[in-house]
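I can't quite decide. Please look over this sequence plus structure tokens:

:::
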Amino acid sequence: MSLIHVWPRLPFKYHGKHPVSVTDIENEHVLTRWYYPATSEGDHPGIAWLPSRYHAFGLGHFLKLSKFASFPIYQYLWTFNSPVARDAPVANLFCNSGDSVKLPVVIFSHGLAGNRSMYSSLCGDLASRGFVVVALEHKDGSACAYVGSDEKPILYQRPVGNDDELLAFRRKQVEERSQDVKYVLEMLHNLNAGTPVENKMTRKISTFEQKGFQNKLSLDNMVMMGHSFGAATAITVLQQTNNFKCGVLLDSWCYAIEPTPSITVPMLSVNSETFHWPENLQSLQHVLSGGNPNNTFVTLRGTGHQDASDMPSLVPHVLLKYMGRSISADPCRALDMQSVVITEFLRRNLGMSGVDLPDYSSKIKDLARKDVVLGIQETYFKGLL
């Protein structure tokens, strides 16, 4: 039995060849964590996985625990490190011809009770391959806690009311989240142009040199990605803008999305085995009915809804099961499968050289024999095979 089942730990081993660093950028509109390929300079044994004690108390609040009862969550999660540096210089990437390569960009939206570090395994893995991943910490009350430089946390807001009021509440949040993404797009364009952006974190922890992103971002190769409610955010953004080359949806929760318009860029929908029901799938199919021939819909066998995040690798399985969380028996295996499927989709739809996107066609075929289901409930989506 792996130690992860007895004493869960980070890191999940990144698959790419680049060291990874992070920096936090906060302006008057948004709070973000940027995962990016770094030079070896500034290597560090790791940074605290938990951004602040308020995030632990926010998780307790989400679970309806008192602050006193939440204190052990803080003590426990504070012991874990992420295998990344902080504020290291941005790496220079080159293709085989020796020409410099611009870095493709992923904007990531978290699910309910998430935060900017909740998906560090996924975001760090993509950064190790050469991507800049901007992970949002949404301010709309859907994060476990939104904690900026002023350390005045906005905790998870639990909706109340009848069905119509609940739907209106979630749709308002989705619109706020979509606006967050648009603020990030503005930030990306400014950094790529060499225009400094406000960073309130500079006064607290950040020593990052923003000029490291100047003329290094491939803004023609941007990916919108999200998990659960974050996938609903990704859908809404892709319905409203044409800034993205493709999109990746992880266990979409489609409750609050609008049925139109449909999305026309290539989409990957990665689903756990436990998080799907007819109404949700019908909504998802409707918005992806633009008929892009590269649309891909897969289900990962033996996985649960939380497996896209770091939580199953951190929290003992017995406790997660007791809390009613949906997880797999082997969280690292689930993250590995997710990484393979996402990497192959991005390789096919970005077509970039100089980025660490190996051909995983044969791996996909091996996984399809037992671990990956192509589609679900006879959907019409084309798969990776």
In short: The CA atoms of residues 279 and 365 lie 30 Å apart.
